[in-house]
Amino acid sequence: MAPAIPHIGDLPSGRRDAITDVAGVTVGHATLAEGDVQTGVTVVCAHGGDPYQQRVPAGVAVLNGFGKSVGLLQVEELGVLETPIALTNTFSVPAVAQAQIRECIALNPECGRSLPTVNPLVFECNDGFLNDIQRMVVREEHYLQARAAAGEAVAQGSVGAGRGMSSFALKGGIGTASRRVSAPGAGLHTVGALVLANYGLLPHLRIAGHAVGARLATQLAAPAAPPEAEKGSIIMLLATDAALDARQLRRLAQRAGAGLARTGSFLGHGSGDIALAFSTAYTVPHRREQPMPEVALLHDSLLDGLFQAAADSVEQAILHALWRARAVTGRDGHVRPALAELLRDWPHDTLAKLRDIPA
Protein backbone atom coordinates (compact mmCIF):
# COMPACT_ATOMS: atom_id res chain seq x y z
CA MET A 1 0.00 0.00 0.00
CA ALA A 2 1.39 3.39 -1.02
CA PRO A 3 1.80 6.01 1.72
CA ALA A 4 -0.41 9.03 2.19
CA ILE A 5 0.83 12.09 0.35
CA PRO A 6 2.73 14.43 2.71
CA HIS A 7 1.10 17.80 3.38
CA ILE A 8 3.54 20.57 2.59
CA GLY A 9 3.79 23.47 5.03
CA ASP A 10 1.46 24.56 7.81
CA LEU A 11 -1.17 26.40 5.76
CA PRO A 12 -4.49 24.56 5.24
CA SER A 13 -5.57 23.48 1.79
CA GLY A 14 -8.88 24.31 0.21
CA ARG A 15 -11.75 21.84 -0.03
CA ARG A 16 -10.42 20.14 -3.17
CA ASP A 17 -6.71 20.89 -2.62
CA ALA A 18 -6.74 22.08 -6.21
CA ILE A 19 -6.43 25.24 -8.27
CA THR A 20 -10.22 25.14 -8.62
CA ASP A 21 -10.54 26.09 -4.94
CA VAL A 22 -10.14 29.60 -6.35
CA ALA A 23 -13.75 30.42 -7.22
CA GLY A 24 -14.49 30.48 -10.95
CA VAL A 25 -11.39 28.57 -12.07
CA THR A 26 -12.01 25.33 -14.00
CA VAL A 27 -9.74 22.71 -15.58
CA GLY A 28 -10.33 20.24 -18.40
CA HIS A 29 -8.28 17.55 -20.15
CA ALA A 30 -8.19 15.71 -23.46
CA THR A 31 -6.01 12.60 -23.27
CA LEU A 32 -4.60 10.67 -26.24
CA ALA A 33 -3.27 7.28 -25.14
CA GLU A 34 -2.76 4.62 -27.78
CA GLY A 35 0.53 2.86 -28.51
CA ASP A 36 3.22 5.34 -29.45
CA VAL A 37 0.83 8.26 -28.97
CA GLN A 38 0.86 9.36 -25.33
CA THR A 39 -0.02 13.04 -25.13
CA GLY A 40 -2.91 15.48 -24.75
CA VAL A 41 -4.18 18.94 -23.91
CA THR A 42 -5.05 20.57 -20.59
CA VAL A 43 -7.01 23.83 -20.38
CA VAL A 44 -7.29 26.17 -17.39
CA CYS A 45 -10.10 28.74 -17.49
CA ALA A 46 -10.04 31.77 -15.20
CA HIS A 47 -13.81 32.32 -15.35
CA GLY A 48 -16.89 31.15 -17.19
CA GLY A 49 -17.27 34.14 -19.49
CA ASP A 50 -15.55 35.29 -22.68
CA PRO A 51 -11.86 35.80 -21.72
CA TYR A 52 -11.32 38.06 -24.74
CA GLN A 53 -13.96 40.53 -23.58
CA GLN A 54 -13.37 40.19 -19.84
CA ARG A 55 -9.66 39.74 -19.28
CA VAL A 56 -8.03 38.84 -15.97
CA PRO A 57 -4.79 40.38 -14.66
CA ALA A 58 -1.71 38.18 -14.85
CA GLY A 59 2.05 38.17 -14.36
CA VAL A 60 4.79 35.95 -15.79
CA ALA A 61 8.08 34.76 -14.31
CA VAL A 62 10.49 33.00 -16.66
CA LEU A 63 12.93 31.21 -14.37
CA ASN A 64 14.73 29.53 -17.27
CA GLY A 65 13.60 30.25 -20.80
CA PHE A 66 14.43 27.00 -22.59
CA GLY A 67 10.90 26.65 -24.00
CA LYS A 68 8.63 27.20 -26.97
CA SER A 69 5.50 28.66 -25.42
CA VAL A 70 3.44 31.23 -27.31
CA GLY A 71 1.81 34.40 -25.98
CA LEU A 72 4.10 35.19 -23.05
CA LEU A 73 5.51 38.40 -24.52
CA GLN A 74 2.15 40.18 -24.64
CA VAL A 75 1.15 38.93 -21.17
CA GLU A 76 4.40 40.35 -19.84
CA GLU A 77 3.75 43.68 -21.57
CA LEU A 78 0.01 44.16 -20.94
CA GLY A 79 -0.48 42.07 -17.81
CA VAL A 80 -3.76 40.38 -18.86
CA LEU A 81 -4.99 37.04 -20.25
CA GLU A 82 -7.20 37.00 -23.36
CA THR A 83 -7.77 33.26 -23.72
CA PRO A 84 -7.85 30.25 -21.43
CA ILE A 85 -4.42 28.85 -20.58
CA ALA A 86 -3.57 25.77 -22.64
CA LEU A 87 -0.91 23.14 -21.95
CA THR A 88 0.32 20.57 -24.48
CA ASN A 89 3.47 19.05 -25.99
CA THR A 90 6.11 21.11 -27.76
CA PHE A 91 5.20 20.30 -31.36
CA SER A 92 1.47 20.83 -30.74
CA VAL A 93 1.74 24.48 -29.70
CA PRO A 94 0.81 25.84 -33.17
CA ALA A 95 -2.29 23.64 -33.49
CA VAL A 96 -3.56 24.58 -30.03
CA ALA A 97 -2.82 28.28 -30.58
CA GLN A 98 -4.79 28.17 -33.83
CA ALA A 99 -7.66 26.48 -31.99
CA GLN A 100 -7.69 29.32 -29.44
CA ILE A 101 -7.73 31.91 -32.21
CA ARG A 102 -10.63 30.18 -33.99
CA GLU A 103 -12.53 29.91 -30.73
CA CYS A 104 -12.13 33.63 -30.10
CA ILE A 105 -13.23 34.51 -33.65
CA ALA A 106 -16.34 32.34 -33.24
CA LEU A 107 -17.28 34.30 -30.12
CA ASN A 108 -16.09 37.66 -31.48
CA PRO A 109 -16.48 37.78 -35.29
CA GLU A 110 -14.76 41.18 -35.53
CA CYS A 111 -11.56 39.92 -33.86
CA GLY A 112 -8.69 40.88 -36.17
CA ARG A 113 -10.94 43.24 -38.13
CA SER A 114 -12.58 46.10 -36.27
CA LEU A 115 -11.35 44.60 -33.00
CA PRO A 116 -7.72 43.85 -32.11
CA THR A 117 -6.27 40.39 -32.69
CA VAL A 118 -6.27 37.90 -29.83
CA ASN A 119 -3.20 36.71 -27.94
CA PRO A 120 -3.32 32.89 -27.69
CA LEU A 121 -1.54 31.48 -24.66
CA VAL A 122 -0.10 27.97 -24.95
CA PHE A 123 2.57 26.43 -22.71
CA GLU A 124 4.52 23.29 -23.59
CA CYS A 125 6.82 20.57 -22.35
CA ASN A 126 8.58 17.94 -24.46
CA ASP A 127 6.93 14.53 -23.97
CA GLY A 128 8.99 12.89 -26.72
CA PHE A 129 10.39 10.08 -24.53
CA LEU A 130 6.96 8.45 -24.19
CA ASN A 131 5.10 10.11 -27.05
CA ASP A 132 5.90 10.03 -30.77
CA ILE A 133 5.95 13.81 -30.84
CA GLN A 134 6.79 13.93 -34.57
CA ARG A 135 3.32 12.63 -35.43
CA MET A 136 1.77 15.92 -34.22
CA VAL A 137 -1.57 14.26 -33.53
CA VAL A 138 -3.06 17.02 -31.36
CA ARG A 139 -5.71 18.93 -33.29
CA GLU A 140 -8.24 21.70 -32.74
CA GLU A 141 -10.86 19.17 -31.65
CA HIS A 142 -8.70 18.08 -28.73
CA TYR A 143 -8.38 21.64 -27.44
CA LEU A 144 -12.14 22.08 -27.73
CA GLN A 145 -12.69 18.75 -25.99
CA ALA A 146 -10.54 19.84 -23.06
CA ARG A 147 -12.26 23.23 -23.00
CA ALA A 148 -15.71 21.62 -22.92
CA ALA A 149 -14.63 19.25 -20.14
CA ALA A 150 -13.45 22.06 -17.87
CA GLY A 151 -14.88 21.77 -14.37
CA GLU A 152 -14.02 21.99 -10.69
CA ALA A 153 -12.90 18.36 -10.31
CA VAL A 154 -9.32 18.02 -11.57
CA ALA A 155 -7.89 14.67 -12.69
CA GLN A 156 -4.17 14.44 -11.98
CA GLY A 157 -1.14 12.48 -13.05
CA SER A 158 -0.98 10.80 -16.47
CA VAL A 159 -3.82 12.80 -18.02
CA GLY A 160 -4.26 15.58 -20.55
CA ALA A 161 -1.03 17.39 -21.36
CA GLY A 162 0.61 15.31 -18.62
CA ARG A 163 0.02 11.96 -20.31
CA GLY A 164 3.51 11.63 -21.78
CA MET A 165 5.50 13.71 -19.31
CA SER A 166 8.37 12.43 -17.14
CA SER A 167 9.84 13.72 -13.87
CA PHE A 168 12.98 12.43 -12.14
CA ALA A 169 12.97 9.42 -14.54
CA LEU A 170 9.53 8.60 -13.14
CA LYS A 171 6.08 9.25 -14.53
CA GLY A 172 5.27 12.95 -14.20
CA GLY A 173 2.33 14.96 -15.47
CA ILE A 174 -0.45 17.14 -14.09
CA GLY A 175 -0.62 18.05 -10.41
CA THR A 176 -2.64 20.61 -8.50
CA ALA A 177 -2.98 21.92 -4.94
CA SER A 178 -4.19 24.93 -2.96
CA ARG A 179 -3.52 26.83 0.24
CA ARG A 180 -5.68 29.25 2.24
CA VAL A 181 -4.17 32.31 3.88
CA SER A 182 -5.61 34.47 6.65
CA ALA A 183 -3.70 37.47 7.94
CA PRO A 184 -4.65 40.63 9.86
CA GLY A 185 -5.48 43.32 7.36
CA ALA A 186 -5.34 40.95 4.40
CA GLY A 187 -8.53 38.92 4.91
CA LEU A 188 -8.93 35.28 3.86
CA HIS A 189 -7.58 34.33 0.44
CA THR A 190 -6.89 31.21 -1.60
CA VAL A 191 -3.89 30.45 -3.78
CA GLY A 192 -4.15 27.48 -6.13
CA ALA A 193 -1.42 25.87 -8.24
CA LEU A 194 -1.44 23.58 -11.26
CA VAL A 195 1.78 22.17 -12.71
CA LEU A 196 2.84 20.30 -15.81
CA ALA A 197 5.84 18.42 -14.40
CA ASN A 198 8.40 17.15 -16.90
CA TYR A 199 11.75 17.87 -15.22
CA GLY A 200 14.32 16.61 -12.73
CA LEU A 201 17.16 14.12 -12.29
CA LEU A 202 16.32 11.11 -10.11
CA PRO A 203 19.26 11.36 -7.68
CA HIS A 204 18.14 14.89 -6.76
CA LEU A 205 14.51 14.10 -5.90
CA ARG A 206 13.36 15.33 -2.50
CA ILE A 207 9.98 14.57 -0.96
CA ALA A 208 8.84 16.84 1.89
CA GLY A 209 12.47 17.72 2.57
CA HIS A 210 13.73 14.13 2.49
CA ALA A 211 16.38 13.13 -0.06
CA VAL A 212 14.89 9.95 -1.56
CA GLY A 213 16.20 10.05 -5.12
CA ALA A 214 19.36 8.00 -4.54
CA ARG A 215 17.39 5.21 -2.88
CA LEU A 216 14.87 5.16 -5.72
CA ALA A 217 17.69 5.03 -8.26
CA THR A 218 19.07 1.96 -6.49
CA GLN A 219 15.60 0.42 -6.38
CA LEU A 220 15.24 0.91 -10.13
CA ALA A 221 18.71 -0.56 -10.64
CA ALA A 222 19.63 2.40 -12.80
CA PRO A 223 22.90 1.65 -14.60
CA ALA A 224 25.95 3.71 -13.70
CA ALA A 225 26.36 6.51 -16.22
CA PRO A 226 28.01 9.91 -16.55
CA PRO A 227 26.02 12.75 -14.95
CA GLU A 228 22.96 13.44 -17.08
CA ALA A 229 22.07 16.93 -18.28
CA GLU A 230 18.79 18.45 -17.11
CA LYS A 231 16.65 18.63 -20.24
CA GLY A 232 13.16 18.72 -18.76
CA SER A 233 10.68 21.50 -18.14
CA ILE A 234 7.89 22.53 -15.83
CA ILE A 235 4.98 24.90 -16.25
CA MET A 236 3.61 26.31 -12.98
CA LEU A 237 0.27 28.13 -12.93
CA LEU A 238 -0.96 30.06 -9.89
CA ALA A 239 -4.47 31.43 -9.36
CA THR A 240 -5.64 33.61 -6.49
CA ASP A 241 -8.78 35.45 -5.44
CA ALA A 242 -6.70 38.23 -3.87
CA ALA A 243 -6.91 41.58 -5.63
CA LEU A 244 -3.45 41.96 -7.15
CA ASP A 245 -2.21 43.86 -10.17
CA ALA A 246 0.10 42.51 -12.86
CA ARG A 247 3.24 43.67 -11.05
CA GLN A 248 2.22 41.91 -7.85
CA LEU A 249 1.20 38.80 -9.78
CA ARG A 250 4.62 38.65 -11.41
CA ARG A 251 6.11 38.69 -7.91
CA LEU A 252 3.72 35.91 -6.86
CA ALA A 253 4.72 33.85 -9.90
CA GLN A 254 8.38 34.17 -8.96
CA ARG A 255 7.67 32.39 -5.67
CA ALA A 256 6.73 29.26 -7.60
CA GLY A 257 10.46 28.80 -7.98
CA ALA A 258 10.84 28.31 -4.23
CA GLY A 259 8.45 25.35 -4.28
CA LEU A 260 10.15 23.94 -7.37
CA ALA A 261 13.62 24.11 -5.82
CA ARG A 262 12.50 22.21 -2.71
CA THR A 263 11.77 19.14 -4.86
CA GLY A 264 15.33 18.98 -6.17
CA SER A 265 15.38 21.23 -9.23
CA PHE A 266 18.34 23.48 -9.93
CA LEU A 267 16.87 25.05 -13.11
CA GLY A 268 19.29 23.28 -15.42
CA HIS A 269 20.50 24.68 -18.73
CA GLY A 270 18.10 22.61 -20.83
CA SER A 271 15.08 23.02 -18.57
CA GLY A 272 12.24 25.40 -19.39
CA ASP A 273 10.87 26.59 -16.04
CA ILE A 274 8.03 29.07 -16.42
CA ALA A 275 5.44 30.36 -13.96
CA LEU A 276 2.31 32.43 -14.51
CA ALA A 277 0.00 33.86 -11.85
CA PHE A 278 -3.45 35.39 -12.36
CA SER A 279 -6.13 36.91 -10.15
CA THR A 280 -9.87 36.32 -10.35
CA ALA A 281 -10.71 39.26 -8.07
CA TYR A 282 -11.66 41.51 -11.01
CA THR A 283 -11.68 41.63 -14.78
CA VAL A 284 -10.41 44.23 -17.22
CA PRO A 285 -12.79 45.09 -20.11
CA HIS A 286 -11.45 44.72 -23.62
CA ARG A 287 -13.54 47.57 -25.05
CA ARG A 288 -12.39 51.07 -24.15
CA GLU A 289 -15.94 52.40 -23.85
CA GLN A 290 -16.48 50.14 -20.84
CA PRO A 291 -15.30 51.55 -17.49
CA MET A 292 -12.17 50.19 -15.89
CA PRO A 293 -12.73 48.52 -12.51
CA GLU A 294 -12.13 50.42 -9.30
CA VAL A 295 -10.13 47.91 -7.26
CA ALA A 296 -8.65 48.19 -3.78
CA LEU A 297 -5.43 46.25 -4.31
CA LEU A 298 -3.81 44.29 -1.53
CA HIS A 299 -0.95 46.24 0.01
CA ASP A 300 2.53 44.95 -0.85
CA SER A 301 3.37 44.58 2.84
CA LEU A 302 0.58 41.96 3.14
CA LEU A 303 1.86 39.68 0.38
CA ASP A 304 4.03 37.35 2.47
CA GLY A 305 1.20 34.93 3.24
CA LEU A 306 0.39 34.65 -0.46
CA PHE A 307 4.07 34.12 -1.27
CA GLN A 308 4.21 31.26 1.26
CA ALA A 309 1.03 29.78 -0.18
CA ALA A 310 2.47 29.96 -3.70
CA ALA A 311 5.66 28.11 -2.74
CA ASP A 312 3.84 25.48 -0.70
CA SER A 313 1.08 24.86 -3.24
CA VAL A 314 3.56 24.46 -6.10
CA GLU A 315 5.63 21.94 -4.13
CA GLN A 316 2.44 20.12 -3.16
CA ALA A 317 1.18 20.11 -6.76
CA ILE A 318 4.46 18.57 -7.95
CA LEU A 319 4.13 15.81 -5.34
CA HIS A 320 0.54 15.23 -6.44
CA ALA A 321 1.67 14.92 -10.06
CA LEU A 322 4.21 12.25 -9.10
CA TRP A 323 1.95 10.45 -6.60
CA ARG A 324 -1.16 10.35 -8.80
CA ALA A 325 0.60 9.38 -12.03
CA ARG A 326 0.35 5.81 -13.23
CA ALA A 327 3.10 3.98 -15.13
CA VAL A 328 2.98 4.52 -18.88
CA THR A 329 4.53 2.53 -21.72
CA GLY A 330 4.86 4.56 -24.89
CA ARG A 331 7.02 5.17 -27.94
CA ASP A 332 9.39 2.32 -28.84
CA GLY A 333 8.46 0.54 -25.60
CA HIS A 334 9.82 3.29 -23.38
CA VAL A 335 8.49 3.04 -19.82
CA ARG A 336 8.17 5.51 -16.95
CA PRO A 337 7.35 3.84 -13.61
CA ALA A 338 4.94 5.35 -11.09
CA LEU A 339 6.29 6.69 -7.80
CA ALA A 340 3.35 5.37 -5.77
CA GLU A 341 4.01 1.84 -7.01
CA LEU A 342 7.70 2.04 -6.11
CA LEU A 343 6.94 3.27 -2.60
CA ARG A 344 4.76 0.24 -1.87
CA ASP A 345 7.94 -1.73 -1.20
CA TRP A 346 9.41 0.77 1.26
CA PRO A 347 9.48 -0.04 5.01
CA HIS A 348 6.76 1.52 7.14
CA ASP A 349 9.17 3.54 9.25
CA THR A 350 10.70 5.14 6.15
CA LEU A 351 7.27 6.02 4.76
CA ALA A 352 6.28 7.49 8.11
CA LYS A 353 9.24 9.85 7.91
CA LEU A 354 8.04 11.10 4.54
CA ARG A 355 4.71 11.95 6.18
CA ASP A 356 6.46 13.61 9.11
CA ILE A 357 4.43 11.60 11.60
CA PRO A 358 5.58 9.09 14.23
CA ALA A 359 6.19 5.54 12.94
Structure description:
This protein is of the alpha+beta class and 359 residues long. The protein has one domain: L-amino peptidase D-ALA esterase/amidase (4-Layer Sandwich), CATH 3.60.70. 25% of the residues lie in helices and 26% in strands. The chain is built from 9 helices and 17 strands. The protein has helices spanning 72-78, 93-107, 140-148, 213-219, 246-254, 256-262, 304-324, 339-343, 348-355, and strands at residues 26-34, 37-45, 54-65, 80-81, 85-89, 122-125, 166-167, 170-171, 173-183, 187-198, 206-207, 210-211, 233-240, 272-279, 284-285, 328-329, 335-336. The strands form 5 sheets. Strands 3, 4, 9, 10, 13, 14 and 15 form a 7-stranded mixed beta sheet that branches. Strand 7 and strand 8 form a beta hairpin. Helix 2 (93-107) packs across helix 3 and helix 6 packs across helix 7. The longest helix is centred in the C-terminal third of the chain and has 21 residues, at 304-324. This is P1 family peptidase. InterPro entries: ArgJ-like_dom_sf (IPR016117), Peptidase_S58_DmpA (IPR005321). Belongs to the peptidase S58 family.
CATH superfamily: L-amino peptidase D-ALA esterase/amidase
Radius of gyration: 20 Å
Largest sheet: 7 strands, mixed
- Shape label: globular
The CATH architecture classification is: 4-Layer Sandwich
- What is the arithmetic mean of pLDDT? 94
CATH class: Alpha Beta
Q: Roughly how many Å apart are the termini? A: 15 Å
One letter per element, helices H and strands E, the order comes to: EEEHEEHEHEEEEEEHEHHEEHEEHH
Family: Belongs to the peptidase S58 family.
Protein name: P1 family peptidase
Organism: Variovorax defluvii
InterPro entries: ArgJ-like_dom_sf, Peptidase_S58_DmpA
